[in-house]
Structures are given as structure tokens and as C-alpha cells.
Amino acid sequence: MSKVEDFLTSEEEQEIVAAIGKAEKNTSGEIRVHIEKETSIAAIDRAVEVFQHLNMENTRERNGVIIYVAVKSHQFAIYGDKGINEKVSDDFWDCTKDIMQKHFREGHFKQGLIEGILNAGEQLKKHFPYLDTDTDELSNEISKG
Ligand code: CA
Ligand code: CA
Asked: Which one, of 39, 47, 29, lies nearest residue 137 by Cα?
């Protein structure tokens, strides 16, 4: 498994997009997934780069979250915008990461992403409840490097 295209089937991708839609029914936060082959820098630093590249600060409450995966590097990271970081402690994403790590280790990539996304939605809900006026501020489509 070395190519991004081999990481998930298009069917699996659609399941992940659906999970993002579902998670965003819990919260005004916006979740995106970016998958690429490898990274030469720390996954969290690359996640910040991609976050900026995708203009993910473009949310009213600054509550966008990126789930970043470097397939061949066997690394992933979760990075949330400043609206989130102002409200939560540094270990806020630990439970989300633990769930993903567990599935990834077993080779269950789709499941790891889906459960990570749904957990992130639950986490965000605590600080950013869903609003009746909600719009889809950031695309739910998977971004690929
Ligand atoms: Ca939204
Ligand atoms: Ca969205």
C-alpha cells in the first residue's frame, strides 16, 4: 500500500464523506480529511500547512478541524483552528487519536477514519453545538495530496 489511491476505494471514500456529514450534524465545527502519500516533516506541522492551504480558517467560529494522514509515512495528525484551541486543553484530541490509532494498527483504515470523524464531532459538540442556522462552511470531500 504505497499510493494514496490504494488507501481507500471510492466506495469507502463516500462512506467517509457521509461520516463527515453526520458528524457535522452534531456541531457547528467543520471537519476535513486530507490524505497524501508521505511527509518529510512532522505530521502535525504538515497538517497545519494543509489546513492553511485549504483555507480552513474560513469559518465563522474558527472551528475547522483537519484530520491529516500520510499513508506511506504511517503518520497522522489532528489539528483544530484557534476558536477550538481557545476553549480546550492540549489533550483534547487524544481520545480521537487513540481510536484512530487502534484501527490503523489493525489495518482498518476506513473504520479508523470514520470513527475518528464521529468522535471528533462528539468532542466538538461540547463546545460548538449544532445551530439551526448551520451551513456547510467547508467541503466534506476528501482532499488528496
Ligand atoms: Ca457546518
Ligand atoms: Ca463540512
From this structure: 29
DSSP state of 133: T
Q: What residues have their beta carbon closer than 5 A to ion ligand 2?
A: 30, 136, 138, 140
Q: Model confidence over 7-64: pLDDT tens digits?
A: 899 999 999 999 999 999 999 999 999 999 999 999 999 999 999 999 999 999 999 9
pTM for this structure? 0.96
| Ligand 1 centroid – CA 21 distance (Å) | 9
Ligand nearest to the CA of 65: 2
Cα(24) to centroid(ligand 1), Å: 6
Q: Rounded CA gap, 47 and 67, in Å?
A: 8
